[in-house]
Design a protein that fits this description.
The chain is α/β, with parallel strands linked by helices. The chain is 28% helix and 28% strand.
């Protein structure tokens, strides 16, 4: 089977490997769709903090079941999506149901080889049936679940003013699920093209281009109060630090981004506002189910989100082009048909 390996930053190589044998308690999945994530782009660029090379990327995965254990709810030919956070089920976090932050977590495509290949054998509990959604949608469930989880962490409520800083795929996912909770969503980003996309497809209340005068504009949108919940999805330490100043008194700040850096903030301002500071990592099965329900209900503009596609064989040659802002990528999909 064809497998694409990121040998070193900037170097992708095709490799022929034997088809895996299904292990005990595992499901053998024929990979049909691989969503390209910001994490994959960071791995390719050499700035992902939890990774050693070489690595097979790919954790936004959908496919069809080839083999499943006897008595499984999954059967040959079923469409399925993957929960790529392989949690231990035994540590302190897992015992509390917080499998997304398992202390021994193995994330596909990061801590261990992922799904940029034709077949993958995985423990059954991480493979879920994707009935009544398309394969493209099934491969989007993971990144959308990150947004759904962040919104749940932020306890977003109907009528609140919410700011999403960063209009890439994760910020878009946050905006979608904050809006579904009834929030008035504003998006802030440096890129005009992504703000145009948000305004056209996400039903957000306002879009603001980061730069001169943005603080005043955000103040005006909220009558000077600023935002009940602010989400950072930029991956920029400077933006993450600046975002503290957009939180309303009594509000919450949710850091969805992860950076290999210390984040600093002004303690008197933090205490004056009684800010709630939250990290949001990955997602739980509950969040995946929330996303699937939203996709089935037609509440996610999945067709608009999918802007680019390529085949697995095209990945080594064309992957670097997805990094070019001029390409206008929202979500790229690798298709294996």
């Amino acid at each position: 089977m064809l497998t694409i390996v990121c040998e070193t930053p900037g170097t992708l190589r095709p490799r022929e490997e034997p088809k895996p044998t299904r292990g005990e308690g595992e499901v053998l999945l024929r990979i049909r769709r691989i969503g390209v994530c910001g994490t994959d782009l960071h791995i390719f660029s050499g700035n992902q903090p939890y990774l050693a090379y070489p690595r097979v990327m790919g954790h936004e995965l959908a496919g069809t079941v080839e083999e499943a254990p006897e008595g499984s709810a999954l059967h040959r030919g079923d469409q399925a999506y993957v929960i790529p956070y392989l949690s231990c089920g035994e540590c302190h976090a897992c015992r509390q149901g917080k499998t997304n932050c398992c202390s021994r977590i193995q994330v596909l495509g990061v801590h261990r080889d992922g799904g940029m290949t034709e077949y993958l054998s995985l423990p059954e509990r991480f493979v879920r049936k994707a009935a009544s959604i398309t394969l493209d949608q099934a491969a989007m469930v993971e990144f959308l679940a990150i947004g759904a989880h962040a919104v749940r962490r932020g306890a977003v409520m109907d009528g609140q003013n919410v700011l999403v800083v960063g209009a890439g795929p994760i910020g878009i996912a946050v905006a979608i699920f904050a809006r579904l909770r009834g929030a008035r969503v504003t998006m802030l980003d440096t890129r005009e093209d992504r703000l145009r996309f948000a305004g056209a497809h996400l039903g957000v209340h306002e879009v603001v281009q980061a730069g001169e005068g943005d603080h005043e504009r955000l103040s005006a949108i909220t009558g000077g109060d600023f935002f009940d919940v602010v989400f950072d999805a930029t991956g920029s330490p400077k933006a993450m630090e600046r975002g503290f100043g957009f939180v309303a008194h009594g509000g919450a700040y949710v850091l969805v981004s992860i950076v290999a850096s210390d984040i600093r903030f002004n303690d008197p301002e933090f205490h004056k506002r009684e800010t709630t500071l939250l990290g949001s990592r990955n997602a739980t099965p509950e969040d995946f189910e929330t996303v699937v329900d939203a996709l089935r209900a037609g509440d996610v503009p999945s067709e608009a989100l999918l802007t680019h596609s390529l085949t697995l064989a095209e990945v080594p040659e064309h992957f670097a082009g997805l990094l070019d802002p001029a390409a206008g990528v929202i979500k790229a999909m690798v298709r294996i048909d």
